[in-house]
Amino acid sequence: MVRPVRITIIGAPVACGTEVKDTWRELSQWISRQLQTRYGNSVRVEYHDLFDPACPLIPPGAELPLVIAGGEVLSSGGKLSLPLIRHAVEAIEDRPAGRLHDGRRRAEAHDGPPAVDDLA
C-alpha cells in the first residue's frame, strides 16, 4: 500500500470589519475536494488553525497561509495555489522514497528552510 501524500495547510481566522472569517479553512476544504477528485486516497489534506493545540511547528520566518507538502515547506504567505499544490503532489508521487524534490536525500539537504519533520 502506498502512503498518501500529506498536504498540511496552516492558517488563521481573518478579522473583517465586525466579523471573523475562516477563509483559509474554507479554501483548504475546497482544495481538499479538488485533490480527492483528481488523486483519490493518494492525497490527504489537513488544515490547522494557527491557534489549535494540534498545529504543527511553524518554521522561523514563515507566513500564513503556510503550505507543507510531503514534510517540506511549499509556500509561505500569499495565496493558496491549487496548481502549485497539484504539481508538488505529482512530484512527490514520482520521486523515490527518502528523496527531496531536487533528488537529494533528506540527510543531504542542509541549505534552505528546514523540512517540517526536521523541526520536531
Brief descriptors of the model:
120 residues; globular; 3 helices; Glutaredoxin; 4-stranded mixed sheet; alpha+beta
Describe this structure in words.
This protein is of the alpha+beta class. It is built from 3 helices and 6 strands; from the N terminus they run E-E-E-H-E-E-E-H-H. The protein has helices at 23-39, 82-94, 116-119; strands spanning 5-11, 14-16, 19-21, 43-49, 66-69, 72-76. Strand 5 and strand 6 (72-76) form a beta hairpin. The chain is globular and about 45 Å long.
> Share of helix among residues?
25-40%
Runs with pLDDT <50, length 5+?
A: 98-120
Category from helices, strands and their pairing:
alpha+beta
Q: What is the terminal-to-terminal distance?
A: 26 Å
Multimer state: single chain
General form:
globular
CATH architecture call: 3-Layer(aba) Sandwich
Radius of gyration, in Å, reads 15 Å
Q: Helical stretch count? A: 3
- Compute the average pLDDT: 83
Largest sheet: 4 strands, mixed
Strand order of the largest sheet: 4-1-5-6
Q: In percent terms, what proportion of residues is strand?
A: 15-25%
CATH class: Alpha Beta
Write the H/E string, N to C: EEEHEEEHH
| CATH fold field value | Glutaredoxin
Count up the domains: 1
Q: Strand tally, please?
A: 6
